[in-house]
Amino acid sequence: MRRRKIAAEGMVVVSSVSKFVSITAIASLTLLAAQSAQAGIDPWADAVIHYKAGTNPQADYVGNPNGVLGSPERVTGENTPFGPFPGSVTMFSSPWGVDEIISIGAGGELIVRFDEPVIDRPGTDFLIFGNAFFALDATFSFIDGIASEPGTVEVSIDGLDWRPANGFADGLFPTQGFLDTDMFGSNIGTVPTDFLKPVNPALTINDFMGLTYAQALALYDGSGGGANIDIAGSGLASFQYVRVSVPTGALHSTEIDAFAAIPEPTTAGLLMLGGVIVIRRKQGRQVIN
Length: 289
Known about the structure:
With 289 residues, this protein is of the alpha+beta class. Helix content is 15%, strand content 24%. It is built from 5 helices and 13 strands.
C-alpha cells in the first residue's frame, strides 16, 4: 500500500507559507460564494450515510469519514504530527493530512448522499477525487505510470437499489489544485484549477506516459482532475447516493477525498469563482509508494 510522506522523499520541504489576498478580492469572492449558496448551487456530496473501513484500510485514515464532504483539497499538510507542512496538491503530490481523506479496505464501503438529484447527461456525470498520483521516471522528469488503487462505484436514487456506474474511484485523473504551482506543490498556488471540469474522459494513462509536468497540465486543460464517472447504462435518469467499495479479499485500499456533481454550464463558472476563497481543508494523508 502506498504510504510515504513527501518529507521522506526529500523532494519538498516547506517550513512556512504566507498567503496574502486583497480585501477587494475577498469581498468580491465572498459575495459570489454567498450568491451561489442562495441560488442553491451545491455540487459536493452533502452527507455520509455509511462507512465500513474493511479489513486492510490505511490505519491513519479511518477516523474522519465526513472529510469527504465539501470540495476537494487544494492545499494539504496544514495539520500534521510534526508541525505545519503545507503544500499544494498536484498530480504528483496527493492529499496526505490525517483529516483530509478516508481509506476503504477490502470488504469495506463508503456511501454518501447528494441533497439534490444528480442528472444523467452525455459524458461525465460526477467526479470522485482520491489520492492517486502520477509516478515519475528515475530522473523525476517524465510520467512513468500511475499509483492508483481503484474502488468500485455504484449509484442509487433511494440508497437501496444500487446500479453499477462506469468508472473507478481513486484512479485517473490525479487531483491538481492550482495551475501555477511547481510539480510537487512546494509553493501555494494562486490560480485555482476547475474542480467541476472533467479531464477529457477519452484520455488514458498511455496519453500521459513520457510527458513532462507542463505537458500533462496542458492535457488537463484547466481541470482539477478527479475520476470521471458516468451513469450511462445504469438505467437511472438521476441519482442521489454513491457507494464506493473494495472487493473482499482485495490486497489494496481505496482512498477518497471528495465527490463533485457536474453542474449545468451556467452554474459551473459561478461556482468556480465563488469557490476560490474557500480553499477548504479536509485533511488526510499523502501516500507515495
